[in-house]
Design goal:
Helix content of chain A: under 10%
Shape of chain A: globular
Number of helices of chain B: 0
Radius of gyration of chain B: 13 Å
Oligomer: heterodimer
Shape of chain B: globular
Number of strands of chain A: 11
Number of strands of chain B: 11
Largest sheet of chain B: 7 strands, mixed
Order of helices and strands of chain B: EEEEEEEEEEE
Distance between the termini of chain B: 35 Å
Strand content of chain A: over 45%
Structural class of chain B: mainly beta
Helix content of chain B: under 10%
Chain lengths: ~120, ~110
């Protein structure tokens, strides 16, 4: 079945960097747009970024634009999120999510999430 | 950015009763509307997309309706496993945006 497994979360100082990974299995990864969605502790969901199935296009929330970079390696069935210049407002559980129907815009499968903490 | 507003923030319902959750968009999202369920410590789960289409494996007691700016998620007869937080999400415009959530709790 479809499975998404995130890794790479941890504690980082303000201004630091972290790279998240999401290993995908159970579907044709190279055929689907993929997203990152985050959830601050005790808060709601915030869409972060999307990358097209072939990596040809990317889009970001204004809150992370210029600091975060989404990428993918279709040969490894893996999605990435490079997070630079981390701020006090970035701590959250970061979920990778599969697009529902190629490029539909809703999320039909989510990973379990990886926790990012920003602390000095 | 389209703002999604859910109401109520908390809904207290007895098992077996009907629950009706509302989601309003700040502009039309043309039925490009999804609903998710999230239980504590778990990832969200897709329930409904296209405003009214149940996702794979979702029980028939979950139904979605609405159009334009107004949408509703109805749980016809609440089961114990349905007590959770529910989010709506629009995918008509960028950025994709979520409502703040409605917590369905046991009355």
């Amino acid at each position: 079945q479809v499975q998404l497994v995130e890794s790479g979360g941890g504690v980082v100082q303000p201004g630091g960097s972290l790279r998240l990974s999401c290993a995908a299995s159970g579907f044709t990864f190279s055929s689907y747009d993929m997203h990152w969605v985050r959830q601050a502790p005790g808060k709601g969901l915030e869409w972060v970024a999307i990358i097209r199935y072939d990596g040809s296009d990317k889009n970001y929330a204004d809150s992370v634009k210029g600091r975060f970079t989404i990428s993918r390696d279709n040969s490894k069935n893996t999605l990435y999120l490079q997070m630079n210049s981390l701020r006090a407002e970035d701590p959250a559980v970061y979920y990778c999510a599969k697009d529902g129907a190629g490029d539909s815009g809703y999320f039909d499968c989510w990973g379990h999430g990886t926790l990012v903490t920003v602390s000095s | 950015e389209i703002v999604m507003t859910q109401s109520p923030a908390t809904l207290s319902v007895s098992p077996g009763e009907r629950a009706t959750l509302s989601c309003r968009a700040s502009q039309s999202v043309s039925s490009n509307l999804a609903w998710y369920q999230q239980k504590p410590g778990q990832a969200p789960r897709l329930l409904i997309y296209g405003a009214s289409t149940r996702a794979t494996g979702i029980p028939a007691r979950f139904s979605g309706s609405g159009s334009g700016t107004e949408y509703t998620l109805t749980i016809s007869s609440l089961q114990s496993e349905d007590f959770a937080v529910y989010y709506c999400q629009q995918y008509n415009n960028w950025p994709r945006t979520f409502g703040q959530g409605t917590k369905v709790e046991i009355k």
